[in-house]
Amino acid sequence: MQTGVLVYEDNEQLRESLDTMITLSKDLLLLGSFSNVREVCQQVKDLQPEVILMDIDMPGLNGIEAVKLIRQFNRHAQIIMLTVFDDNTHVYSAICAGASGYLLKKNISDKLLTAIREVMQGEVPMSPGLARMVIQNIQQQTPAGEKDYGLTPREKEILKALSQGNSYKMVAAALGISIDTVRTHIKRIYEKLQVHSQVEAISKINNEKLL
Length: 211
What we know:
This protein has 211 residues and is an alpha/beta fold. Helix content is 51%, strand content 13%.
C-alpha cells in the first residue's frame, strides 16, 4: 500500500524535484503539492496524508505555524520539516510545535526516501545536536509528578538511548538486539505512555522524570 504525501515548498524548482521523486517511488503517492500553506487545514482534512513535507520558511504563514494548526486536529500525520540550516532555533521550534523530524534541503536527493521510511516506522529524523536541545529544554520544565507506567528495565534502556539522539539501528547494535525487536519495544512503550511519536515519548519521560 502506498504512503500518501503532501508537499509544501515555495521554491518551484525544489518543489518539482520533490514531486518527481515521490511520483517515481513505488511506495509513495503524491496527494498534492503547494507553494504556500494558506489553505493547509482544509487540504490536510480533505487529502488525509500520512506524511507531510513542510518547508519552514515560506511567505505569509510559515511552516512552524502550519504545523501548529495541523496538530490542532491531526496528531497522526508525520510532518518532516525541510530546512536550509542544521540545528537552528526554527527547527527546534518546529519540533516543539509537533513536527516529526527534519531534513536538510541539501540532503533531499540522498535522504528523502529514507527519512519518510523512518517517520513511518516511528523514528525521528533528527541530529544528535537537535535532540540534545529538545531534551535540555524539557529538563528545565517543572516536573508534573512521577508516575508508574509499567515500563520494563529494557524499555527504559531503549528510551534512554533514543533520548540521546540514537537511531533505531544504533540502539539495536548497542543492546545486541534486532531492529524489529526495538520497534516492538517502541510500540509497547507508546501504548504504555499513551503517546504517538518518539518526540512525545521523550518529552514525557523527561518531564515526569521516568528515567
